[in-house]
Structures are given as C-alpha cells and as structure tokens.
Amino acid sequence: MDNLLYPSEGLSTIELPKISLAKLLKNDETEAQAVFDICCRTGFFYLDLMDHAKGEKLWESACLAREIGQNVMSTVPLEEKNKFLKRPGTLDRGFLRILRYPGLKENQAPFKEPRVLPHRDGVSIAMLFTWVYGLQIPEEHPKMIVPGVEAEDSWRWVKPMHGHTIINLGNAIRLLTNRKLASGKHRVVHAVGNQAKTDRVSVLVSVRPGDNTPMKAFESPMIPQAADRKDKIIETAIEWGDRHVKNFIKKMDFKETQ
After folding, report:
1. Residue 43 in contact with residue 137, Cβ under 8 Å?
2. Which of 73, 118, 150, 256 could potentially form a cystine with 187 if both were Cys, beta carbons 3.0 to 4.6 Å apart?
C-alpha cells in the first residue's frame, strides 16, 4: 500500500501531533496527558500503530479492507451497493465503513466544490485510515469570513501517513463533556496534481454511545456543568444521532441542488 502514498506536491499541510499506541497501552501518563490536551484543543491527532504488534495487525487489516473495498466498489453496480446503504433510523453503536471517492476521468475538469462539506461527525470517536490526500481541517486559529465559516486559505491538507490512523473526536463526545473535549471540524475535497485521477478509498472505524444513553453532560469534576432548563427534553443517543444524520443529509442534498 505504500505505493499509494503521494508526496505533498507543495500542498499546505497541517502538522498533526503523533501519539504512540505502545505508550498508551503501557499506561504512560505523559502520553495520556498529551492525548487529553489535544482533545481539549482540536480533537485531531495521528495514532502511530507500528510500535506495537496490535497496531501492526490493525494497520494490515485496514490495508486489506481497502484493497477489498477498491476491488468491490469499483465493479459492483450502484443499485447493488445501495442495498447496503444505511439511512437515518438504522444507527450502529460501532461500524466500519469503506469510503470511495472516484478519481477524475480522462479530460474531466476538476470539481470546484468540496466532495463533503465542512462538518463534525455525529460519533464519539473515529479512526480514519487513508492513503490519498483529500481530508482537510482548519488551522487551529483560522480566519473567519463570518462566525462558523472559515476562510478558504485557513484550510489545511492532512497528510496520509504509513502505519498511522487519523483520530478525531465527534459531536457526541463534545456534548457528553459539555464542550470540554473538542469535536474536529473537517471536509473532504478533491485530490490535486498526480493524485487527481486516483480513487480515494479510505477505511473508517467509528463508535457511538449506546442507543439509550441520555445525551447530556456526564457528571464529573472535570466537566463544567451547565444549568439545564427544567423544560429541556433530553434525547437518547439514537434520537440525537438520527436527528444529526438527517440534518447532515439535508445539508448535502441542498448542496447537490445548487
């Protein structure tokens, strides 16, 4: 799979911090504190899998999933693939997905809009295995056009790295910690240069809270407690997640009509 790792080709990349899986499994306090600090700031980091046998096995499994996904998703008709597409109301607590973004065809003009608009995932935590550029996140202190909308030159490419998975926190963990931990905002854009014609196939592993988990901040001295209104309805995780997915699909459907 290393032959799919492209050079940055002059792209404006972001230097994500690297965390050692081996140190975390050894309960290294310094490494654990580093993870906590990162998750309080941006919610994005590389996890180095190659310094532990379990990590190496996970990387090999991701490479195999990518290879299978590439072979299957590039040949199976769309109608058949749609049979396996999950829609709102069919949430999983944890899932593995293989994402394929086809490369440009011969003489096809590059797309102007991002393939996936800026968003935060509706999960607790996600692990992304990717081999081709496409993922972008804002720099830590981005310039804003208006509140909530980053300037185009504030977006940075995330470099795919051999033996590493990209970790990001989602909106579920941000809500459950009352924003103590950050949810990583990101988007997917079209690869450029020599990568533009290459299919971007990624492997995504995510987990969500259990279906009946009340979506409110945990009670902990580490978590700031908000004064909840007495009339506020507390959603379950499946209700909250269903609404989150519907809103995201509505946003994407709006984009497609532009």
Report:
1. no
2. 118
Burial readout 61-99 (b: 16 or more C-beta within 10 A, e: otherwise) = ebbebbeebeeebeeeeeeeeeeeeeeeeebebeeeebb
Single pTM value for the model: 0.87
Pair of tokens at residue 232: 């506020």
Helix (H) or strand (E) holding 201: strand 200-207
Query: How many whole angstroms separate alpha carbon 103 and alpha carbon 10?
Result: 20
User: Residue 97 phi/psi, 5° resolution?
Assistant: -130, 145
Residue 121 CB partners (closer than 8 Å, separation 6+): 168, 170, 171, 183, 184, 206
* Range 148-155 contact pairs with CB under 8 angstroms and sequence separation of 24 or more: 150/118, 155/187, 155/189
Sheet order of strands, 116-119 included: 116-119, 186-188, 135-138, 155-157
Residues 12-43: tens digit of each pLDDT: 899 999 999 999 999 999 999 999 999 999 99
| Amino acid of residue 249 | I
Q: Where are the alpha helices (DSSP H) in 152-216?
A: 171-176
Q: Identify the helix (H) or strand (E) that includes residue 150.
A: strand 149-150
Q: Torsions phi, psi of 13, nearest 5?
A: -100, 165
